[in-house]
Amino acid sequence: MAKRKEGPYEEFLRELINERKRKLENSKNGKEVEKLKREIEFLEREINRYKEKMLAQRPLEFKP
Questions:
Q1: d(Cα 15, Cα 22) in Å, to the nearest integer?
Q2: DSSP characters over 21-55
Q3: How far lies 46's CA from each of 13, 31, 41, 63, in Å?
Q4: In 16, 18, 35, 57, which residue has its Cα 20 to 30 A from 41's Cα atom?
Q5: Alpha-carbon distances, residue 41 vs 46, 53, 61 (angstroms)
Q6: Which residues touch 21 (CB under 8 Å, ≥6 apart)?
Q7: CA distances from 21 to 17, 37, 38 (A)
Q8: Quick one: pLDDT at residue 4?
Q9: 1: pLDDT confidence band, cut at 50, 70 and 90?
Q10: Stated pTM of the model
Q11: How far apart are alpha carbons 34 and 20 in whole angstroms?
Q12: Cα gap 29→57, rounded to integer Å
């Protein structure tokens, strides 16, 4: 099965995740670290929800 190309929404969320991860690496503040970790987890869950939604909308492929 070929890997599905990410859409613009998924690419946008991935950019946000990468930005948060860079901030996390440079952060020393404990509260900020926890906030960034929660944001990253939320964005990853959002990508998964979006993928499931797109897969559910895709018509089934029948193979003879």
A1: 11
A2: HHHHHH---HHHHHHHHHHHHHHHHHHHHHHHHHH
A3: 8, 23, 9, 31
A4: 57
A5: 9, 18, 32
A6: 36, 40
A7: 6, 8, 11
A8: 63
A9: very low
A10: 0.75
A11: 11
A12: 42
Q: How far apart are CA 11 and CA 8, in angstroms?
A: 5
User: Quick one: tokens of 17?
Assistant: 């995740």
Decide: 47 and 10 in contact? Cβ < 8 Å: yes
Residue 42, both tokens: 């939320």
Q: Are 1 and 9 in contact (CB under 8 A)?
A: no
| Residue 2 CA: distances (Å) to CA of 5, 35, 42, 47 | 9, 36, 27, 19
- Band of pLDDT at residue 16, cut at 50, 70 and 90: very high
